[in-house]
């Protein structure tokens, strides 16, 4: 049985923890709003990019001149998994969910006799995947110092991936990130980056007669690498929003648990205090009676 | 009075401008190009340069862009810029930084084709640098 003083200390420490988790929840809520705004602001670009791509792809049709990034190398022996996770923990199952999706995919590929290479973006994913796939991780990128993810960050990753592809280090690249559905639900998603699937034109009249300057193939060559960077950028933004959402609900839970614990501890503290008072009274009374 | 059309300037981070314009000059790879209403549908890549927008109200605004695409369709002109800044907020330091990184890339580049590409990019940047300083 802990003493009264122990209980008092315990209550104080849980209260302090609750204050921290509450503050973290509020910070996450503010950051979530900003992350959502950033994701929304980035949407027009990727939409337009998709529309333009669809247009060109339609014009070119099944032309052989399509760049390799789009058609692939014709093999699928070596797979690159680009795993995007958060830099920090304390956000529930957010990081482990993404890592698990990547791990399942990697195991499946390994069983099928393929070679797997892993590119970790974010420290947490690296920490988790390192346990099982340490020799397969060929590169990791930390965005810890980045306060606000800009397009340059995504572009750097995209350029690196493309450079690896050009050196023939892999045949298929898949991007793992968490899609932001809502504050309480983030879905780990796998997206094939290379070979890029041509988006389907939304409207039938999109194939209007266009003039291309220089020519369609050259534009496509320029556009596809950019589109890869855009996809990565979008994934990173979704990830930030998801991380903050997950952190918010995790911290909310933690605050609630702390509240429950304080309630229980206070109850037993009061009970013990009362027992002690009763004990002292009995001692006095029985002392008086003995006289 | 010339007709107006819809002009949009989009960077990966956000939608910068969406307005009615009467005349837009874009730095296309094959030379500067003025887009007006009912321009033939064209798609072109951009080189680093200045986009000049004459809005429907007659005001002129300038934006510095670093490469990207322009999509001229029946509905209007959309410029997808890799990065875009209003010319008034543009500082030559950022440009200088880009020039420096390009120079470093050039020094590191091995194969010939890449070198050519970077050299071209570098000359475009330096040109832009001159244009910005000249105002």
From TrEMBL, chain A:
Gene3D superfamilies: 3.40.1380.10, ATP synthase, gamma subunit, helix hairpin domain (1.10.287.80). It is a peripheral membrane protein. GO terms for biological process: proton motive force-driven plasma membrane ATP synthesis. InterPro entries: ATP_synth_F1_ATPase_gsu (IPR035968), ATP_synth_F1_gsu (IPR000131), ATP_synth_F1_gsu_CS (IPR023632). It is found in: Cell membrane; Membrane; Thylakoid. Belongs to the ATPase gamma chain family. Produces ATP from ADP in the presence of a proton gradient across the membrane. The gamma chain is believed to be important in regulating ATPase activity and the flow of protons through the CF(0) complex. F-type ATPases have 2 components, CF(1) - the catalytic core - and CF(0) - the membrane proton channel. CF(1) has five subunits: alpha(3), beta(3), gamma(1), delta(1), epsilon(1). CF(0) has three main subunits: a, b and c. NCBIfam families: ATPsyn_F1gamma, PRK05621.1-4. PANTHER family: ATP SYNTHASE GAMMA CHAIN, ATP SYNTHASE SUBUNIT GAMMA, MITOCHONDRIAL. This is ATP synthase gamma chain. It comes from Allorhizobium borbori. The gene is atpG.
Automatic annotation (TrEMBL), chain B:
It is found in: Cell membrane; Endomembrane system. It is a peripheral membrane protein. Coiled coil: none annotated. This is ATP synthase epsilon chain. The lineage of its organism: Bacteria, Pseudomonadati, Pseudomonadota, Alphaproteobacteria, Hyphomicrobiales. Produces ATP from ADP in the presence of a proton gradient across the membrane. Belongs to the ATPase epsilon chain family. CDD domains: F1-ATPase_delta. Residues 5-84 form the ATP synthase F1 complex delta/epsilon subunit N-terminal domain. F-type ATPases have 2 components, CF(1) - the catalytic core - and CF(0) - the membrane proton channel. CF(1) has five subunits: alpha(3), beta(3), gamma(1), delta(1), epsilon(1). CF(0) has three main subunits: a, b and c. It comes from the Bacteria. One of its GO terms (molecular function) is ATP binding. One of its GO terms (cellular component) is plasma membrane. Keywords: ATP synthesis, Cell membrane, CF(1), Hydrogen ion transport, Ion transport, Membrane, Transport.
């Amino acid at each position: 049985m802990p003493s009264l003083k122990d209980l008092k200390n315990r209550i104080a420490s849980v209260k302090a923890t609750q204050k921290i988790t509450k503050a973290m929840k509020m910070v996450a809520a503010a950051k979530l709003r900003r992350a959502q705004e950033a994701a929304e602001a980035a949407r027009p670009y990727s939409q337009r990019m998709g529309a333009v791509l669809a247009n060109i792809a339609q014009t070119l049709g099944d032309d052989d001149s399509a760049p390799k990034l789009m058609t692939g190398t014709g093999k699928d022996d070596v797979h690159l998994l680009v795993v995007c996770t958060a830099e920090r923990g304390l956000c529930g199952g957010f990081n482990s969910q993404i890592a698990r999706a990547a791990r399942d995919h990697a195991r499946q590929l390994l069983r099928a006799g393929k070679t797997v290479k892993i590119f970790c973006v974010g420290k947490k994913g690296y920490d988790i995947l390192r346990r099982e796939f340490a020799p397969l991780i060929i590169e990791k990128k930390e965005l810890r110092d980045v306060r606000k993810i800009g397009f340059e960050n995504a572009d750097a990753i995209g350029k690196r991936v493309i450079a690896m592809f050009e050196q023939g280090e892999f045949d298929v690249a898949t991007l793992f990130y968490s899609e932001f559905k809502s504050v309480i639900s983030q879905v780990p998603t796998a997206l094939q980056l290379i070979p890029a699937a041509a988006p389907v034109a939304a409207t039938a009249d999109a194939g209007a007669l266009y003039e291309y300057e220089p020519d369609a193939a050259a534009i496509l060559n320029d556009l596809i690498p950019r589109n890869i960077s855009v996809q990565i950028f979008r994934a990173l933004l979704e990830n930030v929003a998801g991380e903050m959402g997950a952190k918010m609900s995790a911290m909310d839970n933690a605050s609630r648990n702390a509240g429950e614990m304080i309630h229980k501890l206070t109850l037993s503290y009061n009970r013990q205090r009362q027992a002690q008072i009763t004990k002292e009274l009995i001692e006095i009374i029985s002392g008086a009676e003995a006289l | 009075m010339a007709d107006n059309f819809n002009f949009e300037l989009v960077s990966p981070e956000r939608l910068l401008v969406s307005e009615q314009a009467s005349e837009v000059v874009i730095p296309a790879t094959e030379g500067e190009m003025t887009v007006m209403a009912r321009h033939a549908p064209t798609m072109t890549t951009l080189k680093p340069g200045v986009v000049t927008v004459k809005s429907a109200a007659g005001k002129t605004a300038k934006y510095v862009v670093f490469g990207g695409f322009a999509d001229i369709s029946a509905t209007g002109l959309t410029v997808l810029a890799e990065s875009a800044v209003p010319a008034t907020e543009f500082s030559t330091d950022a440009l200088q930084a880009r020039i420096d990184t390009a120079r470093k890339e050039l020094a590191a580049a091995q194969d010939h084709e890449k070198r050519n590409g970077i050299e071209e990019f570098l000359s475009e940047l330096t040109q832009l640098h001159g244009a910005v300083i000249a105002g």
